[in-house]
Amino acid sequence: MTKTLLILPGDGIGPEVMAEVRKVIDWFNARGQDFEVSEDLVGGCAYDKHGTPLHDDTMARAQEVDAVLLGAVGGPKYDALDFSVKPERGLLRLRKEMDLYANLRPAQCFDALADFSSLKKDVVAGLDIMIIRELTSGVYFGEPRGIINEGNERVGINTQRYTESEIERVARSGFEMARKRSNKLCSMEKANVMESGVLWREVVQKIGDTAYPDVELSHMYADAGAMQLTRWPKQFDVIVTDNLFGDLLSDLAAMLTGSLGMLPSASLGAPMANGRPKALYEPVHGSAPDIAGQGKANPIACILSFAMALRYSFDMGAEADRLEAAINTVLAQGLRTADLIGEEGRAPVSTSEMGDAIVAALDA
Ligand code: NAI
Ligand code: MG
């Protein structure tokens, strides 16, 4: 079956790192895979051409393809634009209209980088956990919201709001993920002080009891979870949590492993007619205007995002393993882009040298 990909390189280093992903896709296509790639604009570059950060035709194409791969959007050139046409609005529109409610953020420590973490080596070496953050509801969207006048001062208001069905669908994503890994799921909320947390815990427990009795389910208050994630992160496998706590906990977990240039993500929605989930894959980092155009960007986050596409959109787990192994090989050989060099002062490789080395390691 043909696998259709829409590639949206975006702004800044987005096109630079995506060029390296194209090399990886070409490598797979040269060995019998049939990825059919189309490319389009998102973010500032789309605004420059169309006056909008995401053209309707691009949005329609994103709804049709098996997976969207996005680089990054934004840059100083667009900072003064009206909010309605800001580059990030393009990304938000994709997430919203594709209804991508489950945000997957792995925190994985490559052996060769265990020394690079700010934590002790034995805490992070071999770490491989997955945080699933609810992405389309919760306090970032709940109504009422706003800044109102009350007596002689102003009040800022946001509302944490979750329906049972919103909790249920992301909980199912968590249980399914746990089944693909080591059958362990930890759900995090603050049921001790929040009503939405009480409902969250109840619904997750019910889904677990009725549909996933084989998965070992635990619950933890999110603040205790933050503590445990830094103390001994390897106690976890899959964590499922809401939008706000997931935002914080996934950033925290990500930094256990090293650089922003190493972090991939996936955002998944409901299954399409062909059984594949609606899906958008992107590195966690932004457009890095400070290094754009200089060949310094680390392409690994974007390449690992493609590895996630192999795993979660195309059931190509063995190929995803092979790609991750190639990245580990290259790091073990000592190749480092500038962001992965600490005090030791070795010479960095360029974006394209890193991509070439990874493709070469795929051959080995
Ligand atoms: P950023 O992630 O672009 O950069 C933060 C720092 O990390 C910079 O020093 C940058 O050089 C470095 N960095 C990031 N990715 C790297 C990579 N692959 N290799 C090596 N170094 C890397 O975040 P920042 O500076 O806050 O935002 C810059 C622009 O990106 C803004 O316009 C922002 O709105 C946008 N942005 C877009 C995102 C997206 O498209 N999903 C996410 C975050 C920010
Ligand atoms: Mg964040």
TrEMBL record:
Cofactor: Mg(2+); Mn(2+)
Documented EC number(s): 1.1.1.85
Record has Magnesium as a keyword: yes
Signal peptide: none
Location in or out of the cell: Cytoplasm
Domain Isopropylmalate dehydrogenase-like: 4-358
Principal location: cytoplasm
Amino-acid positions noted as binding substrate in the UniProt annotation, renumbered to this chain: 95, 105, 133, 223
Keywords, comma-separated and alphabetical: Amino-acid biosynthesis, Branched-chain amino acid biosynthesis, Cytoplasm, Leucine biosynthesis, Magnesium, Manganese, Metal-binding, NAD, Oxidoreductase
Residues holding Mg(2+): 223, 247, 251
Residues engaged in binding NAD(+): 75-88, 286-298
UniProt cross-references to InterPro entries, sorted A to Z: IsoCit/isopropylmalate_DH_CS, IsoPropMal-DH-like_dom, Isopropylmalate_DH
Gene3D superfamilies: Isopropylmalate Dehydrogenase (3.40.718.10)
Top-rank taxon, per record: Bacteria
Entry annotated with the keyword Mitochondrion: no
Cofactor binding comment, as recorded: Binds 1 Mg(2+) or Mn(2+) ion per subunit.
UniProt record similarity statement: Belongs to the isocitrate and isopropylmalate dehydrogenases family. LeuB type 1 subfamily.
Matching HAMAP family: LeuB_type1
Function: Catalyzes the oxidation of 3-carboxy-2-hydroxy-4-methylpentanoate (3-isopropylmalate) to 3-carboxy-4-methyl-2-oxopentanoate. The product decarboxylates to 4-methyl-2 oxopentanoate.
Assembly: Homodimer.
Protein's recorded name: 3-isopropylmalate dehydrogenase
Species this chain originates from: Halovulum marinum
